[in-house]
Design goal:
The chain is of the alpha+beta class. 37% of the residues lie in helices and 21% in strands. The chain has seven helices and four strands; from the N terminus they run ααββαββαααα. The protein has helices spanning 12-19, 24-30, 55-60, 99-106, 111-118, 125-134, 140-147; strands at residues 33-43, 48-51, 71-74, 85-96. The chain has a two-stranded antiparallel ribbon with strand order 1-4. A two-stranded antiparallel sheet has the order 2-3.
């Protein structure tokens, strides 16, 4: 079964389900995974140009600006109505519920603890966005705009 919940991160679905009155042992035994998504504006492929992002934005997304890395910005053209963007695309975070996370859910662990248990076994939403910016699909500032509360 698929459902939509309003949370800021994939693991936040567990806390949301508990808030709705579902017993943790039921969540632990039936939840297989969770996904969070946000929409970012897609760079216009007609007018995008290489751009040097600020070191501050790169650091806020958990990276260091590597020499030779190419990022882009839209300068505006007729195709995008001078916005630099055409359409939107998703950036995602997926968490798979494994035995360790299942045990933490069943023991009523806090969201902070669930994030700790989840560890590095998933790709955070901001990392997916960073990769899409590095591929020239969006901008780092756009990723930061939609993920700053995550």
């Amino acid at each position: 079964m698929f459902s939509t919940l309003h949370t800021t991160a994939a693991v936040g679905a567990v806390a949301r389900l508990m808030d709705m009155g579902i017993e943790p042992f039921l969540i632990a035994s039936s939840l297989r995974g969770g996904m969070a998504q946000r929409l970012v504006r897609r760079l216009c492929q007609h007018c995008k140009q290489p751009a040097q992002p600020s070191e501050q934005i790169v650091r806020r997304l958990g990276h260091r600006l590597e020499e030779g890395a190419t990022f882009y910005e839209g300068v505006g053209c007729r195709e995008c109505r001078n916005t630099g963007y055409t359409g939107r695309m998703g950036i995602f975070e997926v968490v798979t519920v494994d035995d360790e996370l299942r045990d933490a859910i069943a023991s009523r662990a806090s969201t902070t603890k669930l994030i700790e248990v989840r560890g590095d076994r998933h790709i955070p939403m901001w990392e997916d966005g960073y990769r899409k910016a590095a591929a020239g699909q969006t901008t780092l500032s756009e990723v930061l705009r939609v993920t700053q509360d995550v």
